[in-house]
Write a structure and sequence with these properties.
- By secondary structure, the protein is of the alpha+beta class.
- It has two domains: about 10-95, Lp2179-like fold; about 105-220, Aspartate Aminotransferase, domain 1 (Alpha-Beta Complex).
- Helix content is about 30%, strand content about 25%.
- It has helices at about 10-20, 75-95, 105-115, 175, 205-220; strands at about 10, 20-25, 25-35, 40-45, 50-55, 95, 130-135, 140-150, 160-165, 180-185, 195.
- The chain has a five-stranded antiparallel sheet. The protein has a four-stranded antiparallel sheet with strand order 2-3-4-5, with helices on one face.
- A hairpin with a 6-residue loop joins strand 7 and strand 8 (about 140-150).
- The radius of gyration is 23 Å and the shape is elongated.
Length: about 220
């Protein structure tokens, strides 16, 4: 179950639409499965953490064999398959990707959503920690969020960090890059893109200003 909901965050409004009932700070959902042999109960708390129970409708006792890796057999397999199918459906319909965890990355995502109504697009199955923002009118990228080791920016560290690539005018490149806060564009055309580590080394206001300029430049390209 932990793998199913890994790197996601809950949308509580979608839980209600799905059929969850809110009781205090808990969202509860139940469904009979396998021709009413079992009752699956799913609970999501106010933090977005998910817990489950499968109750045998005949004995009214909890069934747990589907959670044990060593449990095999056709019947256990059918319970496990139905269990994972329902949880995956809940994840796809009620949860959103939550790859970028730093406070500044979250601030960037919120800013762009509020100002431009754009959502992150995860384009590469092989690189699930990379995503882009692009304009709706011409589909041009104006920002990319990625998770990389610092040594990719020629810094002597293997620490994994979240970065943003932003488009700038070619005339600005040399005056902006200082290799302390602003670096040449990682995995982008270095004549037109810069990279900033999302660790609050640059104030949000300045970062948002650069994003706005990048958005405008993407219209012209």
């Amino acid at each position: 179950m932990n793998e199913i909901f890994k790197n996601t965050k809950v949308n509580f409004e979608k839980l209600i639409k799905y059929g969850f009932c809110k009781v205090n700070n808990l969202y509860n959902y139940s469904k009979n499965i396998l021709e009413n042999q079992f009752l699956l109960k799913v609970t999501v708390d106010f933090k977005g953490d998910v817990s489950t129970q499968i109750i045998d409708n005949n004995s009214n006792e909890e069934y747990i064999l589907h959670l044990l890796k060593d449990s095999t057999g056709e019947f256990v397999g059918s319970v496990r398959k139905e269990y994972e199918k329902i949880l995956t459906d809940i994840k796809e319909k009620c949860f959103e990707k939550n790859i970028f965890k730093s406070l500044q990355a979250q601030a960037v995502i919120e800013y762009i959503k509020n100002k431009y109504n754009d959502e992150l697009e995860f384009l590469w199955e092989k690189f699930p920690n990379n995503a882009i923002f692009r304009r709706k009118d011409n589909k041009k990228w104006y920002a990319a969020l990625l998770t990389i080791p610092l040594n990719k920016l020629k810094i002597k560290s293997n620490e994994m960090v979240e970065i943003i690539d932003i488009k700038v005018s070619e005339e600005q490149i040399n005056e902006l890059i200082d290799n302390k806060i602003i670096y040449e564009g990682y995995h982008m055309n270095k004549k037109h893109w810069i990279t900033i580590v999302l660790n609050n080394s640059m104030p949000d206001e300045k970062l948002f200003e650069l994003i706005d300029k990048s958005y405008q430049l993407a219209k012209q390209s």
